[in-house]
């Protein structure tokens, strides 16, 4: 677990970076050779160690090839920024805490979230699981071309919008989730919820013959045809859990994934005005934090491992 006091001190912050990135020894990012020698420190930063690979002769440092090398801010400030992201502060809140311009905070937050989305561990569902969908109101804030499109209807207030299921086109974005009972979560944003849309998502992420629990929505009606076992609860009839084997345990339900949606709504609430273009990185970040089951200082260590390619 990272000591927060250490990341404020530049020297100790680099020591933490090296501890996490080079836990199995220094490896050349270019050829992955372990035959590496130290080559002094950065002339502008006396704590940033330089190395030289004896095999490919390439030079690199503690941050080479990582997201932290893409910004001019100090690595200590970037790590503190990442810590605040893990606490789910909004971009504006972080800008105020670190005395940054809002545009700078927005750019850094976007970069970090997208890097987490790209590098988070791949999850495969292999045991009984639940599938459900939720709808998030999200427009095209910051995307002038999408906002000014000729076929785009005027935005309506949320409480006056169309009821029921939505699509990305009407700013009510569908998010489909799969959660393994007592296991991992996978969530993804879609333009709509149709069988042809969600089939690849299901077949790529769930092993065949897995038992899947859903509600009665007809987009899940072909799960057996796609090679899965399938059981449903009928919410429209007031059924939310069913005990099929009379053992006193109501195993047929989608309560687990519906509980995730409650957490997701709370997670998104501080971030007002998320655009559809950025929403995938927000929900990808949420998925990662849910799967590592850590918060605060514990989460920071896991976030750094992903961003440092560990």
Précis, in short:
With 310 residues, the chain is α+β, with helices and mostly antiparallel strands. It has 10 helices and 10 strands.
Describe, in plain words, how this protein is organized in 3D.
With 310 residues, the protein is of the alpha+beta class. Helix content is 35%, strand content 16%. It has ten helices and ten strands. The strands form three sheets. A five-stranded mixed β-sheet has the order 6-5-4-7-8, sandwiched between helices. A hairpin with a 7-residue loop joins strand 1 and strand 2. Helix 3 crosses helix 10, helix 4 packs across helix 5 and helix 5 crosses helix 9. It is elongated. It starts with a helix and ends with a helix.
What features would you highlight for this structure?
310 residues; alpha+beta; five-stranded mixed β-sheet; three-stranded antiparallel β-sheet; 10 helices; 10 strands
Any chance you could write out the topology, listing elements then pairs?
Elements: H1 4-8, H2 10-21, E1 36-41, E2 49-53, E3 59-61, H3 75-86, H4 91-98, H5 102-119, E4 129-137, H6 144-147, E5 172-180, E6 185-189, H7 195-205, E7 211-215, E8 229-233, E9 241-242, E10 252-253, H8 255-268, H9 279-292, H10 296-307
Parallel strand pairs: 4-7, 7-8
Antiparallel strand pairs: 1-2, 2-3, 4-5, 5-6, 9-10
């Amino acid at each position: 677990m990272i000591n927060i006091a250490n990341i404020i001190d530049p020297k100790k912050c680099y020591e933490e970076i090296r501890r996490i990135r080079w836990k199995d020894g220094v490896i050349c990012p270019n050829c992955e050779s372990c035959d590496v020698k130290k080559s002094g420190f950065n002339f502008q930063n006396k704590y940033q160690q330089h190395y030289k690979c004896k095999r490919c002769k390439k030079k690199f440092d503690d941050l080479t090839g990582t997201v932290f090398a893409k910004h001019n801010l100090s690595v200590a400030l970037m790590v503190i920024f990442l810590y605040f992201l893990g606490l789910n502060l909004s971009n504006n809140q972080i800008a105020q805490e670190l005395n940054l311009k809002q545009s700078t905070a927005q750019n850094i937050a976007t970069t970090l979230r997208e890097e987490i989305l790209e590098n988070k561990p791949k999850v495969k569902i292999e045991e009984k699981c639940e599938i459900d969908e939720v709808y998030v109101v999200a427009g095209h804030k910051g995307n002038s071309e999408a906002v000014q499109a000729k076929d785009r209807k005027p935005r309506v207030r949320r409480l006056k919008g169309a009821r029921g299921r939505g699509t990305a086109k009407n700013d009510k974005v569908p998010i489909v989730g799969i959660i393994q009972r007592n296991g991992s979560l996978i969530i993804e944003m879609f333009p709509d919820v149709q069988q042809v849309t969600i089939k690849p998502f299901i077949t790529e992420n769930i092993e065949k013959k897995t038992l899947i629990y859903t509600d009665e929505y007809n987009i899940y009606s072909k799960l057996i045809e796609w090679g899965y076992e399938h059981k449903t609860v009928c919410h429209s009839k007031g059924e939310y859990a069913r005990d099929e084997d009379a053992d006193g345990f109501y195993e047929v339900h989608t309560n687990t994934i519906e509980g995730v949606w409650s957490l997701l709504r709370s997670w998104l609430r501080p971030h007002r005005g998320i655009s559809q273009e950025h929403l995938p990185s927000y929900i990808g970040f949420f998925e990662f934090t849910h799967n590592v089951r850590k918060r605060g200082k514990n989460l920071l260590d896991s976030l750094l491992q992903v961003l440092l390619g560990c």
